[in-house]
Amino acid sequence: MNKVGEISFKEIKRISPSQFFSMKNCAYKSLLAEAFDKKPLLPLSPNAYFGTVLHKMLEMTAKGIIKNENDLNIEFAKQVKILEDDLRDKGFSFFVPLKIKLRNFGLKKVQLKKYLRNNLEQPIKSGKTNLYSEKWFESQDKLIGGKIDLIIETGDDIEIIDFKTGTVTHDLLDDEGEVLSDVKNEYKEQLKLYAYLYFENTNKFPTSLSLVDLAKQKFTIDFSEEECKRVFDEAKTLLKTTNGSISTRSFLAHPKEENCKYCLYRPACSFFQQKLDEADFSFNDVLGVIKNVRIFQNGNVSVFLQNGNKIMTIKNFSFEDFDELNKNISKQIRIYNVTKEAAEYVYSVTDTTMIYE
Ligand code: SF4
After folding, report:
1. How far, in Å, CA of 164 to CA of 245, rounded?
2. Residue 104: how many other CB atoms lie within 10 Å
3. Cβ(66) to ligand 1 under 6 A?
4. DSSP H helix total and E strand total for the chain
5. How far is the C-alpha of 180 from the C-alpha of 327, rounded, in Å?
6. 251 lines ligand 1 (CB under 6 A)
7. Domains along the sequence of the chain with CATH
8. Residue 43, SS3 per DSSP
9. How far is the CA of 282 from the centre of ligand 1 (A)?
């Protein structure tokens, strides 16, 4: 059974453009991440790990390292192998082989191939073009820093590109109630931060900011220099306020479903634990006192947890878990990453389920 132990908070030295939105939503999450040296307390989803492979492939295609389908097949197999070895090292063998464990594995590879074909059909810009990929920029005071996926400089044209392997837009309702699709705010702000970082380092503003997705769709972000400066200042203020909250212990935490659902520091978060204590059943995590542990003929184990006057059943633990659970009867535990069954207060264990006391 896992334990969190004493949390020793540390100041966050630098905020990255890709982290800004998450920090705005719950600054406490960023402090927990720093306190645990960015080592998550719960496993990421296999899709999140796979996203890093896709991102690398997009970058290599845009840079011209992957020139044809053969290159793509070789590099893809290589990157998947590196990731699978890493997952095994981390003790996450249950995610391997990715080809079988990920529902969209084949689809994503097809999308990469389409992306490559579209890339080959792009007209080459005239004039001398400089490409910089994964280039690190930081502000003069070092409070903001991050890698820009791709910078294309052609004469006075400077384009900053960020690759996204997931959905770039979200739907909004306009004044007339019509559904509009717009680029997510978090991505707009991320690119504006990159623009200002670029400016601080080169004395020039980029002329365009773009997001490119796997379907090779390009989304251009409107921006002004003032807006970029405003977001830049906002990020620095947020960093300072967040660090300031360590000494005052007035943490900026926002325990809401959309923030906490994917937070990998839930086991260390007292605000989130309070939600579970109050028997908030909107999450895929449960808290309660072990009332009973039962083993079935097929070797499956069920745990019965009491929270208030509710009894929850968590099914499908393995035979090996029985002794550990049984010797902790009457103890309060928290079980993270379970799935809800159709019956009320019944849950099942998943590959990523973890128990904390
Ligand atoms: S669990 Fe929720 S409230 Fe707690 S740190 Fe994570 S996002 Fe913030």
Report:
1. 32
2. 11
3. no
4. 11, 12
5. 55
6. no
7. 37-121 (no CATH), 129-244 (3.90.320.10), 279-356 (2.40.50.140)
8. coil
9. 14
**Rounded Cα gap, residues 85 and 3, in angstroms:** 27
Tens digit of pLDDT for each residue in 21-38? 999 999 999 999 999 998
Query: 305-324 in b/e burial notation, b at 16+ Cβ within 10 A?
Result: bebeeeebbbbbbeeebbee
Residue-wise pLDDT tens digits, 100-128: 888 888 888 888 888 888 765 554 455 68
Instruction: Report how far ligand 1's centroid is from the alpha carbon of 337 (Å).
Output: 15
Is the Cα torsion angle 13, 17, 19, 21 positive or negative in sign? positive
Q: How far apart are CA 320 and CA 325, in angstroms?
A: 10
Q: Does residue 263 line the site of ligand 1, with CB under 6 A? A: yes
Q: CB of 272 closer than 6 A to ligand 1?
A: yes
Please name the residues in contact with 279: beta carbons below 8 A apart, sequence gap of 6 or more: 307, 308, 310
Residues 6+ apart with CB under 8 A from 67: none
283 lines ligand 1 (CB under 6 A): no
Q: What is the pTM of this model?
A: 0.85
Q: From the CB of 73, is ligand 1 less than 6 Å away?
A: no
